[in-house]
Design goal:
alpha+beta; 20% strand; elongated; four-stranded antiparallel β-sheet; 5 helices
Length: 215
């Protein structure tokens, strides 16, 4: 009986037929984690590229207008932003801003001429401000010459994890800002048309003279 048991144990030690299954059981969770993590990271990078494209496109197309901009053009740009981010839907899950900023000299600094925004995530605020349009700080601390005008577009969107939130918590904010110089000073005013204006985002626009006094 003891001899038979010893022979059985020796055969069991030499038997490697199930070794591959055991190794796979140990390795499979690690492989799945690497695969899903890589997929999540790629999806996040794609979302960030889309948001960057929205900010760049909106600033560029707005600044290209040689004779200023219409309310209808602004509305079309917001619709285009949603198409660019499809299926992520930036107007549903984020906020987009277009702002015209003018250099006001040493007394008032950069000032907001007008601002339009769209998107349901009102908690994603404009990085250059909305309620106070005096001494506006532009990205990279850009300082405009007196009466020079620039276009600032900001795209912000909440990133929703594709599979799990271990790498990126739900509602991680992705924000990109683009600055472009327009071709015409007439861009400082939005021309009204039959289109209902988008929200001015609460911007309290006040014009100042070269001495820093409201006009």
């Amino acid at each position: 009986m003891i001899v038979s048991l010893r022979k059985f144990l020796r055969r069991l030690r030499r038997d490697t037929s199930g070794l591959g299954v055991i190794e796979l059981a140990f390795v499979a969770p690690i492989l799945m984690l690497l695969m899903t993590g890589g997929l999540e990271l790629a999806n996040y990078i794609m979302a960030k590229m889309k948001v960057t494209r929205v900010a760049t496109m909106m600033a560029d197309l707005t600044a290209q207008s040689p004779v200023g901009v219409l309310e209808g053009q602004i509305s079309d740009l917001f619709l285009a932003a949603n198409m660019v981010t499809d299926p992520l839907n930036i107007l549903e899950n984020g906020r987009v801003y277009i702002t015209a900023v003018r250099g006001g000299g040493s007394y008032v600094g950069n000032t907001i001429l007008w601002q339009r925004c769209d998107g349901k995530r009102t908690d994603f605020v404009s990085e250059i401000g909305s309620s106070n349009n005096k001494n506006v700080v532009l990205p990279r601390n850009i300082t405009l010459e007196t009466d020079a005008i620039t276009v600032v577009a900001q795209a912000s969107m909440a990133y929703k994890p594709l599979l799990f939130d271990a790498l990126f918590p739900e509602n991680t904010e992705i924000t990109q800002v683009a600055v472009y110089m327009p071709r015409a000073l007439s861009f400082g005013v939005i021309t009204a048309d039959e289109t209902t204006p988008k929200s001015n985002c609460g911007t309290n626009v006040t014009q100042y003279n070269d001495k820093g006094y409201p006009v």
